[in-house]
Structure formats: C-alpha cells, structure tokens
C-alpha cells in the first residue's frame, strides 16, 4: 500500500506582480484561505488578500505602557517604601528623578512589544513551513510571484481549484504536500 502525503495547498506561479494581483483578487472572492508570496512589496496586494487592520501598533502600545508603568512603580517602591532616604530635602517620591529611566524602559518595552507582536502575528515561531516543500518556492525570494489556496478552505476541491488557478494563466500550478 502506497501512502500519499496530504495536500497542504495548490501553488500558482506568476512572472509579473500585476498577474499576481489580478489572480489574488479573483481567488479571494471565491476562497478564504488564500495567500500570496512576492519578492518585494506589491501595491494593493494586502487589500486584495483582505488585510484591513494591523495589530502591531497595539502590541507596541501595550509593551510601552507595561514597561513604563513597571519601571515607574519599581523606582517609586524602591525610593519611597522599601529604602527611603532623605537626600537633599526632596520628597521620597520625587517623580522628576524617575522620568529618564521610565522613558528608556518605555521605549524598550515598546520595541520588545513590537518585536513579539511581529513574531506572533506572522507565525514565525514555526521552524518549518509546508510551503517550503514546493521545489519552486525558493523563487519567491528572487523573481517569481506565488498564489496559494490552502486545502483548509471549506470550498477547496483539488481538481476544481486547480482548474480555477490554471485559468488565471500562471507558469505552472503545483501541489504542496503537508
């Protein structure tokens, strides 16, 4: 008995970004699990894929707020509660002295929040992606444009989806094994 690996997606290869954009718009109307790969930014491609909001600014804001509040509270607790020293007649909770370190840690927290957000939202914690199983996919970082329709889409039928992709005029359509 021969075991076949399940199909992860169908991958269509294009030579021009305009072809990819037109194919993406066509497939996004029909399928939900569509993704596009290009060696550089293609104007209009995120909108064609259905990206509307970016959550990276939220991660950045949360990281900055958490870092700034934590640093301020750490300094306040240390200076006013844990080890109070009356230096120069100033108050124990003299906030102007806390501003430089608080600002620095706010910026660090924002940068770390942004970095963690990018990793999480892009799914980059994965060490190997099934798309790397396609022999031609290495061209996505050089000079080719790819459109994939994943098998997890509810309307995915391998023969019908292949016919839809081939009608868009790609160089080739390949199956990507999971």
Task: Kindly describe this structure.
There is one protein chain. By secondary structure, the protein is α+β, with helices and mostly antiparallel strands. Helix content is 44%, strand content 13%. It has five helices and four strands, in the order βαβαααβαβ. 23% of the residues are buried.
Rg over CA atoms? 25 Å
CATH architecture of the largest domain: 2-Layer Sandwich
- Shape designation: elongated
- On the 0 to 100 scale, the average pLDDT is 91
Q: What's a concise summary of this model?
A:
By secondary structure, this protein is α+β, with helices and mostly antiparallel strands. The protein has helices at residues 17-30, 45-49, 56-82, 99-122, 158-166; strands spanning 7-14, 34-37, 145-150, 172-177. It contains five helices and four strands; from the N terminus they run E-H-E-H-H-H-E-H-E.
Question: What structural keywords apply?
Answer:
single chain, 178 residues, alpha+beta, Alpha-Beta Plaits, 5 helices, 44% helix
């Amino acid at each position: 008995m021969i075991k076949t690996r399940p199909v992860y997606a169908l991958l269509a290869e294009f030579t021009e970004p305009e072809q990819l954009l037109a194919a993406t718009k066509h497939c996004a109307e029909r399928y939900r699990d569509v993704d596009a790969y290009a060696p550089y930014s293609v104007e209009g491609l995120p909108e064609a894929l259905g990206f509307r909001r970016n959550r990276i600014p939220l991660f950045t804001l949360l990281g900055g707020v958490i870092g700034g509040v934590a640093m301020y509270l750490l300094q306040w607790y240390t200076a006013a509660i844990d080890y109070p020293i009356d230096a120069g007649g100033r108050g124990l909770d003299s906030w102007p002295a806390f501003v430089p370190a608080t600002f620095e840690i706010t910026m660090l927290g924002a940068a770390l929040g942004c970095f963690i957000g990018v990793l999480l939202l892009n799914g980059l914690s994965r060490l190997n992606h099934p798309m790397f199983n396609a022999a031609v996919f290495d061209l996505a970082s050089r000079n080719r444009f790819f459109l994939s329709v994943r098998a997890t889409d509810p309307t995915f039928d391998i023969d019908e989806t292949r016919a839809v992709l081939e009608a868009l005029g790609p160089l080739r359509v390949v199956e990507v094994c999971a």
